[in-house]
Design a protein that fits this description.
alpha+beta; Rossmann fold; Beta-Lactamase; seven-stranded mixed β-sheet; five-stranded antiparallel β-sheet; 22 helices; 49% helix; binds S-adenosylmethionine
């Protein structure tokens, strides 16, 4: 046998708290469901531990109410599980047919949640009762332990969504449009009485023809299921019908009721409970008859004649009967007893029954149980035993001990009546085996159901997570798309800028070519100039040094280029002249120096004109240009010209 799981003390404390505040005892409800419900509330109230949640329950009575409401799962619909309703229609039509005209048809929907089931069965019954509207002949009781659910049921107004499982025809016939959806027609509402009732602890409704208690037992443990079934047995009229939920295969129900449609969990109350003690006559054939002993009758006397008759009755009775006096001595041992135990009445008469050690009669039965009956503490006692007969199957007997009363009702001793229950016992054993198997199958089914439910919940959670991940991905995607769009725009802009740059580039290349050509012409011109031409950058470094400069100033272009002019030692340009040039250029002024005497590179002296011009464009100093023109010949020609003019004058 599977050992019970250890008690979860925090869960117990939570259930205890609920019991204190709401007087509702969930301790015999299935733990797995309760745990899941508590976990949900913990998640909703952001409590990470059971201890934290318990503390919340301590300070907030509203949370206790919410928890109770959440633990009483009220999932329901109109005509839930349609194929069951097809069977129920048949059951109700049958009841209506068999009903006496004045007899009220009484139906109880126990655990009816928000009333859909109670109204559904009222509609079915109204339809079975035939044309015209149901009157006082129909009474439906709808009960639930949840007050809010019952209050909702009483209003009898349902949304179109809640009525989805109700056919169009029934909707049209039994409902009228109302604000918020549809209202149950008053003819049906009149027949349904709603009330708060705990089917475990409150008094059951009585004299019921049909009880619907569907999808309630799945939440209860086996013990509570048995208790509730016993109450339903009591509440039902003889031949009354009980319908449980599709997933509620409860072995005990089949013990108490006759299954009518087991797959749909429909049972009938028959007389089987009362039949448990029905006598059986198999004992008669258990062993060979032995010579019966008798008390000598006196047939002449009328009382003796009666005694003889009684004796014959007793001896003809198939059940073994033994009577003892107040001291336990045997005063009667009928023929069936003689046959069963193989002893004659004469043999056992007067002897104490307890001392005979008759097989199948236990010491407990003969001593303790018999003493209880004898002392009046028990009306009757029952003991089971087995007899092993030579060459035959063992016989199981059930012995009933009752007081033996005299005519004046005084206690005269005890009467032991044995029944052969071999067949019953083997049937019971078979039934027990079948029940155990059913129980096991049920347990397996329940546990796989729970696993499936848990897996389902996990799937739901995963699904929710996936959905949220999906939403995030969609958001990211949208962001990426917009970034992409921006990138495309930027790309287009870049492409157009690129095209513009290309055009500019081409223009620049063209300009460069022009510039190159210009530069080439310029350089050629500069090189060809007869004046020595020197170009300086803003820092005084030489960037141009033409052929005339080479000739007049005595340095080759290669020697001069890149040098700082002011640091060079050039014979034609004295240090003082260089200093003056530098001063003027630093002050951005032009220097023109005529008839400068200078030393030629090969040693002679000459005259020259020097011009130093700062190169300034838009107030930016680009450097300077220095022109050095040899005027030696010009000067001598001018001199000669002057002398010739003088001579001509004289
Ligand atoms: C899942 S609903 C079933 C509703 C309806 N019978 C059906 O099958 O559609 C279970 C109902 O049983 C009720 N319930 C649970 N324990 C109960 C109890 N001890 N007494 C009465 N009703 C109870 C709950 O409040 C809930 O409304």
């Amino acid at each position: 046998m599977a050992s019970k799981p250890p008690r979860d003390s925090e869960l117990e404390a939570i259930l205890e708290k609920v019991r204190q505040v709401r007087s509702f005892d969930f301790r015999s409800y299935k733990r797995a469901t309760l745990q899941r419900r508590i976990d949900r509330r913990m998640a909703a109230t952001h409590c990470r531990t059971r201890t934290a949640y318990l503390a919340l329950l301590e300070r907030d009575a509203n949370e206790v109410n919410t928890l109770v409401s959440s633990m009483l799962i009220k999932l329901t619909t109109f005509f839930r599980d349609p194929e069951v309703w097809t069977s129920l229609e048949k059951v109700v039509r049958d009841m209506v047919r068999k009903r006496r005209p004045e007899q009220e048809l009484r139906i109880w929907s126990a655990g009816c949640a928000t009333g859909e089931e109670a109204y559904s069965i009222a509609i079915i019954a109204a339809e079975a009762l035939g044309p015209g509207l149901p009157g006082t002949e129909l009474k439906v009781f709808g009960t639930d332990v949840d007050e809010a659910a019952i209050a909702f049921a009483r209003r009898g107004v349902y949304t179109a969504q809640q009525l989805e499982s109700c056919s169009k025809e029934r909707l049209a016939r039994w409902f009228v449009p109302a604000s918020g959806g549809y209202a149950v027609r008053k003819e049906i509402r009149r027949t349904v009485v709603f009330g708060v009732n705990n089917l475990v602890s409150d008094a059951p409704v009585s004299r019921i023809d049909l009880i619907l208690c569907r999808n309630v037992f799945i939440y209860l443990d086996a013990e509570l299921q048995k208790r509730s079934l016993a109450r339903f047995h009591f509440a039902l009229r003889q031949e009354g019908v009980l319908a449980l939920g599709r997933s509620e295969l409860i072995p005990f129900a089949a013990k108490l009721f006759e299954p009518v449609d087991l797959t749909r969990r429909i049972y009938r109350k028959d007389g089987r409970q009362e039949l448990t003690w029905a006598p059986q006559d198999r004992v008669i054939h258990a062993s060979e008859p032995t010579e019966p002993g008798r008390f000598p009758p006196d047939a002449q006397h009328p009382r003796d004649a009666q005694r003889v008759l009684l004796r014959e009755v007793l001896d003809s009775h198939p059940c073994p009967v033994i009577a003892t006096d107040n001291e336990g001595g045997i005063i009667l041992f009928n023929q069936a007893a003689a046959r069963l135990w193989g002893r004659t009445e004469a043999d056992v008469s007067g002897k104490r029954l307890v001392s005979l050690a008759l097989p199948g009669l236990s010491q407990d039965l003969l001593v303790e149980q018999s003493a209880r009956v004898k002392a009046g503490r028990s009306e009757r006692e029952v003991g089971d035993g087995t007899l092993k007969l030579l060459g035959a199957e063992p016989v199981a007997i059930r012995v009933l001990v009752v007081p033996l009363r005299s005519v004046s009702a005084d206690a005269a001793g005890l009467l032991y009546v044995a029944h052969d229950v071999t067949t019953l016992r083997s049937l019971e054993q078979n039934l027990q085996l079948a029940n155990d198997e059913l129980n096991n199958a049920n347990l397996r089914l329940q546990s796989s159901n729970e696993e499936m439910r848990a897996a389902n919940e996990e799937l739901e959670t995963t699904n929710e997570e996936l959905q949220s991940a999906n939403e995030e991905l969609q958001t990211t995607n949208e962001e990426l798309q917009s970034t992409n769009e921006e990138l495309e725009t930027t790309n287009e802009e870049l492409q157009s800028t690129n095209a513009e740059l290309d055009a500019t580039n081409r223009e620049l290349a063209h300009r460069t070519q022009e510039m190159d050509a210009l530069s080439f012409c310029q350089n050629t011109i500069i090189r060809a100039l007869s004046e020595g031409t020197v170009v300086l950058d803003p820092t005084g470094h030489i960037s141009t040094w033409n052929l005339a400069a080479e000739r007049l100033l005595g340095l080759t272009e290669r020697e001069a280029l890149g040098q700082v002019l002011w640091t060079l030692s050039i014979p034609a340009l004295s240090r003082s002249l260089l200093t003056r040039i530098r001063k003027h250029l630093t002050a951005n002024r032009t220097l023109r120096q005529e008839d400068v005497s200078y030393q030629l590179p090969h040693g002679g002296r000459g005259r020259a004109t020097l011009v130093a011009i700062p190169l300034i464009m838009d107030s930016q100093v680009l450097g300077a240009i220095i022109l050095f023109e040899d005027t030696t010949r010009l000067n001598s020609l001018t001199q000669k010209n002057r002398e010739m003019k003088e001579r001509l004058k004289t």
